[in-house]
Amino acid sequence: MENLIKKNHADKQMGLGILIIVIGSVFLLRNTGIDIPHWVLSWHTIMLGAGLWIGYRKNFQGSGWLALTIIGAIFTLRDITILDFELSKITTALVLIGLGLWVILKPSKFKNFSNNFQNTSNVHEIKN
């Protein structure tokens, strides 16, 4: 148990360290004159990253991380422009496709009722 706690703490430290390095690298690149898009360090990109981070830490169970990720992704996609094409024109379609994939691929939480009656080898019939 103690080894698991130490490993979990080490994973948190590693993730936090990588996050700080990435943010510092973006600031360094921006301050040296390299053009970094404004959306890289915006509130919605941070929200997107936080949602993915929380989802990773909770093995993508629950839906709190999903709300953060979807809101951050929608606003981030609105700001990204690739080759003079605004992704905001297809954001709604991408969100609907992602939602559909999530509904299809999420694990089912219900148990099939008929599986409870398959093993009837130990049941004895009562004869009158």
Automatic annotation (TrEMBL):
Keyword list, A-Z: Membrane, Transmembrane, Transmembrane helix
Transmembrane segments: 12-30, 36-56, 63-81, 87-105
Keyword Lyase: no
InterPro entries named in the record: LiaF_TM
Residue ranges constituting the LiaF transmembrane domain according to the UniProt record: 16-110
Pfam short name (any one): LiaF-TM
Protein name: LiaF transmembrane domain-containing protein
Provenance organism: Pedobacter jejuensis
Lineage start: Bacteria, Pseudomonadati, Bacteroidota, Sphingobacteriia, Sphingobacteriales
